[in-house]
Amino acid sequence: RRRPAGGPSRDDLLNQVHCMNEIGRRSLEHGVLACVHPHVHTAIEKLAEIDFVMDRVDPRFVAMAADTAHLRKGNPDVPTAEVDVFRRYADRIKYVHLKDWDPSIPPETSGSGGTAIIRDFCELGLGVVNLKGAIDALRSSGYDGWLTIELDYTRRTPYESVGMSKDYLI
Fold first, then answer.
1. How far apart are CA 144 and CA 48, in angstroms?
2. What are the pLDDT digits (tens) for 11-61?
3. Are 80 and 128 in contact (CB under 8 A)?
4. If you ran DSSP here, which 8-state letter would residue 33 be given?
């Protein structure tokens, strides 16, 4: 759901929690664990919204799919946002997007149908996201799930881009 002007109300977030719990319960009946994915421009973007939702969703049915860049970009005034979330919810994170963000890059352009194309994400190691801190938090918690290197847009060829992110991780 797109982020309401002025942010979500308490009722908006409670509705999200209700829906997530129901989706999670039904998904688990089919062997699929549902995950909250905090994301810029949605109702669950700011740390307080993440905490509100995670405090209320049923952990039997709903986990977290954490994205380093969305956590940082959604909370630009909190330089430790991604690490804080990874530490706080380490036991509930079941899937991770490793992505970096460079706030000096113009952020978005309009796509077809009025959608935003996010252009300020960058190859791993080129932005401000504390990837090492987030990965360390996962390691110390014993995380053994998937890590996906993700980049929504690149100014390079895909081959160059993936090579840069791979080199960063090695």
1. 27
2. 999 999 999 999 999 999 999 999 999 999 999 999 999 999 999 999 999
3. no
4. -
Residue with tokens 């991604």: 82
DSSP state of 46: S
Whether the predicted model's global pTM rises above the 0.85 cut: yes
Degrees to nearest 5, angle at CA 139 with 47 and 160: 85
- Does residue 101 contact residue 107 with C-beta atoms inside 8 Å? no
CA distances from 38 to 63, 75, 94, 99, 110 (A): 11, 11, 13, 13, 22
Contact (Cβ atoms closer than 8 angstroms) between residue 93 and residue 86: yes
| Ramachandran sector of residue 142 (left: φ over 0; alpha: ψ -120 to 50; beta: rest) | left
Radius of gyration of the chain (CA): 16
What letter represents residue 135's amino acid? I
Distance of CA 99 to the CA centre of its chain: 9
Amino acid at the residue 13? L
Q: Which residues contact 154 (CB under 8 A, 6 or more apart)?
A: 122, 123, 160, 161
**How distant, in Å, are the alpha carbons of 38, 88, 100 from that of 1?**
11, 24, 23
